[in-house]
Batch of 2 targets.
Target 1
Amino acid sequence: MQLRKYISEIPLHLMILPGLIIIFIFQYVPMAGLVIAFQKFHPVKGMFKSDWIGFENFKYVFLMPDFNQVLWNTVFIAVMKIIAGLIAPIVVALLLNEVRISAFKRGVQTLIYLPHFLSWVILGGVLIDILSPSEGIVNRFLSVLGLESVFFLGDNRVFPFVLVLSDVWKEFGFGTILYLAALTSVNPALYEAAVIDGANRWKQTLYITIPGIFPIIILLSTLSLGNVLNAGFDQVFNLYNPSVYKSGDILDTFIYRLLLDNAQFSVATAVGLFKSIVSFALIGTSYFMAYRFANYRIF
Amino acid sequence: MKKKKRSTFLMISLLIIASTLAACSNTGGNQGTASPSGSPAATEGAAGEDTGSSESANDPLGKYDPPITITSVRDVGASVKFMAGESIDNNDWTREIEEVLGVTLKNEWSTTSMDQYNQKLNVTIASNMLPDLFMVNATQLKMLADGDQVEDLTEVYKAYASPEVRELLDPYLQSATFDGKLLALPNVSSALAGTSNVIWVRTDWLNNLGLPEPKTMNDLLNISQAFTTQDPDQNNQDDTFGIAAEKGLFGYPSLAGFFNGFHAYPNSWIKNEAGELEFGGIQPEVKEALAVLQELYKTGQIDREFGVKDTTKVNESVTSNKVGIWIGPTWAPFFPLQDLKNNSPESEWKAFPILSVDDQPAKAQMPNPINNFYTMKKGTAHPEVVVKLMNLYVDRSFINTDFSRFGAHDGVEPWHYPLVQTLNPDTDIVYAVNVEKALANNNPESLVPTEKEIFNKIVAYQEGDNAFWADKKVNDARVIINEQWVNGLIEMDQFAGAPTETMGAKTAALDKLISEAYTSIIMGGNLNEFDAFVTNWNNLGGRDITAEVNEWYKNSQK
Amino acid sequence: MISRNSMSRILFQVFNYGFLMIMAILCILPLINVLATSLSSSSAATAGQVTFWPVDFTLKSYEFMFNKPEFMQSVWITVQRVVLGTAISMGLTLLIAYPLSKNSSKFRLRTLYVWLFVFTILFNGGLVPWYLTIRNVGLLDSIWALVLPGAVPVFNVILLINFFRGLPKELDEAALIDGAGHWGTLWRIYVPLSLPAMATLVLLTVVGHWNSWFDGLILMNSPANYPLSTYLQTVIVSQNLTSLTADQMKELAELSNRTVKSAQIFLAALPILLLYPFLQKYFVKGMTLGAVKE
């Protein structure tokens, strides 16, 4: 009986095999390079003969002045991006779902994905104009409302929020596509039944639609936890300036400047490893908790 | 429970296998010169075995017979053009070095921008897959020195360098010397024309307001105020301001020239009365300059948003007629002033030397002119090749010049082609002075082709073609720099060595400190912050760096 | 679906359409600005005069890129990589997602496999080991270097697993009764029902391959082998203006960064603009789950 089960599973193992080989060669083999994080890496000596210095690389980075500030900035900005980046696409997908004119729906879907293609190099310039305290549209709008103008890109209190909002604007299209695809797979029969029961659209959304896409919401939230130390190098690099280093300098920009003057792969690998471990811990914990308390495997 | 154990076991065994495989692959890569065929080292190994390769002993231009192949990597700028059918591996210069030196230069990879080149080179260095000969910057050179990956060129330089090359390069060898070993040949850049600041003022605005040209810093400040408050572009809008600045302060445009007017030399090492080196960025003169800048910011003479604007953004202020004073190198007219000229032909700019705040003439600072170096990989068979290539380049460019082959022709500029090159800090300045003389005498006969090209462009401008306005202005600016150079009014950065230990570790943090402190003071902070900043700078590594710099200085004076 | 035209419903629709329209406009405005900039003269662009319509219309930035023979070559390389890469990725994604979407009871080791894949998006050894591995496998300078290392897009796999799990279990049982093995079930049942999900993944994969430039830079030795995005990357002159050589100065002077950068961005967005209409029909139609009658 056991044997028959094993045999019936063989096709499944075979299906996974090619993928397994690929990730083994191209992901796991290079992973051995992580040892560099614990070495004083010399290219000539290579990975296996460079001196072992244990946690020195980590200490070097952790003890740098400003490290704590930088770490805090990174987490703060990243968490806000995760939250906002979860809510916006869901809301928009739900709204789009209500649209009956399919040409309009298609049009909006395409257009909102476009900001994804604009690089931060260009967007940086655009944002400086829009957010200018003297001539920018946003501040002119604020003055119409009787409010004082805000130096968005130069004020430490506001800068992180500018980062979050502009990033959400740029990337929410991607999430919307995913949620919309998920929405199409909710069984129409459920809606029909609900209508018969007298539920209005709002109740339908609450009790059918959202639960229907719940798995993917959980999935995407969990995966995004892996980004909690990636606050977005490209964006910050193109938008930050000395006036907002205090609130805007993140782990990656910090390391970037460090490596410009002192191209040390050991340090870069150490920080990378640090980030990976944190991501792994967060995702692992979420997975474990969902499994333990809801008997649900997130993936 | 059993399942968990099995999975962990599997994980561990997988990791072990992974590490073993990685070990095999890495050792293969590490045995650079001795690795088996298929790697570029093979060709070079073959050449090495060819010890029968004879050459006239220590002849600076001695030919290798039989010819040898040297591997290299290259950045070929996007705007470099070749004749039909030619490429970076096949052109007049590659044929020249083959004919004369018996050297075939083979590029393992090439890129089309310096950013890309640096990225690829960093990977190449870290994976120890070095070609025989390649160009590096100071940071990479230090990396290579620490990793002991490049040849010691001290002996071959002494043995093979031609007298002309020695004359050109000897003063700059310290920047490539580590622990007494010469690890690379420096590429001297035309730094005077490229980096020292002049002050560009918009003269049509001066005329509109009836103001005279500035002779002192005070004049300049008056002009700045007038530009801000008196509507110099006469469009009835209060949209102009005096001095352009970008968020990094010393990029482009640069405020270095402004500081120089106060005898302050930020980011530079200067000699004090005791004969020691000090860091210019923490001196009291800097505080004086910052105080004035603060005033300018308060009164709107510097863009209130300069702190968030990068170069591209600041350029817009120029091309949209908002700013009248631009501090930068002699080539500012090429970019962005020419753009403005194209749009607004009535705009006119003139370069002024650094204007002083008191009766002592001001000096323009000039940073270390060495940005790039040429190194040979450790274990390479013919380390003297780099010296010979330099000999040949200097010979063909400055002594036995052959402009029909190496001057611009048919739309291509062959002087891009040689890998190993060098100039003088005043190369472009010399050209400018010669062109100026030729213009005054209306006699271009004695000009070399490079100069003649400039001459022709300026003549075209004088006859009405605004497209070459920039060439004229740049030339004028270079003549001004020449004045200063000749009169000893250029303050050279006194530190010319390789980055020190603490520099490597702390420069990033110290630069951040400087940026934050200066910007904060300019934008309205308390001037006393400066003193706190100096203390911080010293404590965070500045003191150590100063000690190391002075150590180098003492040794270099021997 | 009966829709009630109550007042609140109409109000909501008005608000909804309005809001979505504003949002869509906000999203496209910058791209229009970018397109206009790319078609404007360098002086106008640097003066910040361009808003939504080209000023001093010129095709110079596009000409500058198209004129190089490398341009057409790089387009061909990118097309190859997109086609090969997407086909291989989608194939592998399907093959991996199907088994992993089964319960642990039906497929032991399932969770182990999943974590093996997930682990690879969390941990990586860094640039140099990655480069060395690919080099040692002999893929440098070949199209396979752009296709194979990333051939298993774990994120896509996880999405598809999730999607497959949402399909009713009755399908499996029905297939089993009909005598279909795992292969049959996968190809004849799961795939046709997953078209919206697959369309999404195809879109993501194509976009990913089209825009991926860093691997092209590091893994291709000759610029002749660069994919389009790497090639476009090269025409952007360095931002570090403190150490410009005479050549770089000339480059800067010849073309404004801004117009060329804009042209580059526009070309990057092009495939999505062209591809999206094709894939749309898969998104909009819901699946008919009526395949299984209760």
Target 2
Amino acid sequence: MLGVFRSRGIERDVREEMDAHIQMRTDLLVAQGMSPDAAQRAARQRFGNRTLLQERAREQEVLPRLESVVQDVQYGLRLLRRSPGFTSIALLTLALGIGLNAAMFSVFHHTLVAPLQFDEPDQLYMISSHAASIGDARRASSGPDFRDYRAQNTVFSGVAATIPSFSEVWTGDGEPRVLNVAAATEQFFAVMRIRPALGRVFVHDEFHDLANETVVVSWKFWKSQLGGDPHVIGRTLRMEDYPSKIVGVLPPMTDLYSDVDVWVKQTTEPAWDFMNWRANKFLDVIGRLAPGVDRRVAEQQLTAILRRAAGEGEPADVRVQLTPLRDYVVGPVKRQLAIIMAAVGVVLLVTLLNTAAVLLARSIKRSPELAVRLGLGASRGRIRRQLLVEGLLLSAIGGALGVALAVFAVGLVRRAPGIALPRIDSLHVDGAAVAVSVLVVVVSAVVFTLLPSALLELDLGSAFRGGRRETGRAQRPFAVLVVGEIACGVVLAVCAGLLVRSFMRVQATDLGYQPDRVLSAYLRNNFADPRGLVFWHNVLDASRSVPGVTTAAISDCVPSSRANAATIVFTDRANVRGREPSTEGCWISADYFRTLGALLLRGRFFTEQDAPNAPPVVILNAEAARRLFPNVDPIGKRIGVNYLALGSRSTDSVPRRREIVGVVSNIRQRSADLPPGPAVYLPYTQDETYHALNSMYVYVRSAGNDPAALGPSIRSRVQALYPDQPVERVQVMRQVIAHAIERRTYSVVLMAGFAVVALLLCGLGTYGVVSYVMQQRTREFGIRIALGAQRGNIVRDVLQRGGALIGSGIVVGVGASLVATRALGQLLFETGAGDPGVYGLAVLALGLTGVGACLVPAIRASRLDPRAALNEE
Amino acid sequence: MPRENDALQGTLDLLVLKTLAQLGSMHGFGIALHVQQVSSDLLRIEEGSLYPALRRIEQTGWIASEWGTSDNNRRAKYYRLTAAGRRRLAHEEQHWLDLVRGVNALLRFS
């Protein structure tokens, strides 16, 4: 404001001074004998254009005045309105680039960078162990591991364990439901520093009072299932047919265990057998390092502690690893997000190149106008400022649109089904993302301005002389921009192409079974004893009795989604303790393979005769047969199977010897995009511990094409027998498979989207630049046509020039792609990072886009009316 | 105008500073008139460019101004040299003499 006033004052000052000058000159002329009128006219004439001079005097001021900035903004807005085509292209590209960037940066920052919600989260570590001698896989902790760590460590301020996820049936409040339950040891909430939102967490005495069950419910469960009841404390939940009193409600937990409904207490007393087995590693153990303790020191100490258990079967080379809790939470998506972020960066680069090209073209087009303004006395600084204001204006509007787009996109990411990102519930467009966007806006504005005005500096002389003859020099920056854009486009197209091809290969891959007419459902019950055998027998009978069902089966595995693990003990050769081969393992019923549509290669399937008391049997898949019994027929051999999940755990006892009765085709068990590993299948009736009977998936094969239609009948028939039995996760097999690879789907969709955006931007940018360059050569083309040049030659000439640029861009892009695609790594499925088909297609796409973008201006040039072209100047 | 010749602009500064050194305090018209008369009409300051120049020189701190009344009772802005202006004048004079000596030497070379 001060500047405006000061500016007014200066203006008045200057005007007064000049008026005085003219008056004095008039006085002098009158004194020399001129008439007053003539004298005044002469004095004015001699003085020149007063307004202009006044402006120039004002511009001698060192700082720009607010007044003139407002003028610049108004002028800039007028210019933008006057060329809507240019404005919309520039704004669209800016909004797209900045919006994508802000959205992805929000996701990136929130997921990977922002600290976890817990107090001093950097002190929290997940404890795991691994040993090279047993395959180096990451192992969680067992009850004895945890007790040893807790008793012997000096590095933690607190250490706690959880059983991260199991399910229990909730009855008595309407429709029976399966709840996600987690169990926490006494220190858990203290170590995590979680304070309850309502009521309290578990207290010390409760852990010694196992008769009275108490539970703490999650915020999500309280809100969605208990209606946010403020008097919920003291209410009873009936879980597994046993009443549990609610003592507290937790605050929202978005970062860890976000899908847990109910927390129960986990005693570490050796009251429960499964807490006493050293090899039964199913606990999450989280430690909070004491201040100042180095992670490696802690790892060494815990390693020493665990190695003392060598006598209990712990490998001698076992090593304990502390994973920062955040890495543990976000680990699986880190690389994928980084790749997507890089892709967004490339899109942003294309955006900036594109906008720079458009602005450059425009400012050169405007250079005669600017030269005239210079000639009329506007200072160079003033013009540069005008350009800067215009650039900023454009960036600001584009940036605002971009941020709006980002908010929209982040909302989409949060709500979209199938996007399995950790911590996604609390995702939002964050301040850092906005800050980065603002930075991008400011930098782009400065770049857009300095680039054209630097060029202007070179070229203003010729512009002022009234020419519009562009020289090669003025076209060079355009060449760089087009080459850069095309190169970026190639990189994105190649990455997208590789991912799409991988995706198609995954879709088309032979799963080893026929998923199309199969429906699955999850059932859980309370029977960990022979009653379970009756239960499952009845469930299978009920399922088979549904019209349209041809076969039904149960298993604790989900094909293409998950499998449990087992280790093998041989009877025909020596076993090395700790080095037993490891396989996938599943409990199944007789018709499992028939229902899924897998092939029997040798021997037989299980039958009803493989009952609890019949001789124990096992079926191998082809891969297990090949690895365990190379060059030998495995049928009739006997092996022992240590099952490493619910069911048939052995503490120290030797597992039952099972006769191999069949070999089946390989099923992609863990995921459609992971190769099938060796697997063993056991009849569910032959689990002596009955643990497997607790929770199973039911599979039915439909006679018709619509297996989903069978769901309601199966549920009603099961519930006719067991009214309180939940039937959950009713899904056709194709859904299950899609769910298992949804992360891949997500990145394919995103990458393909980015590639399309980049392709569009490249097309727009190339079109704009080539059109502009052609326009500069209008006169030349006019002359050539007038001199009889073939119009075809003109087109060829334009295409040759454009083609050279596009060609260079493609070469640069292919080179960059060969490097960049190495980062895709595991996301590629049966597709080489240098897949020639994908490169060919990407080159073709960019080439066609580029040539198409050149073709329009080329044809326009060839249709020139030579007279009009020559008259143009 | 683009790069309106630093030498010329420098000359105008020299004329203004020297005039003010000779006259003490003077308004713009007086400066222009003085230059014209002393140089026997050989030098004529373009009146339009005088005021922007005065403003610029004032901004750099070589001259200072205040409003006053002219001999025939017109309100006018009077300029006078500052200490910095005096130092600048010495520098400009030396620069000018060097330039003249150099050009003369070149002209007389045969």
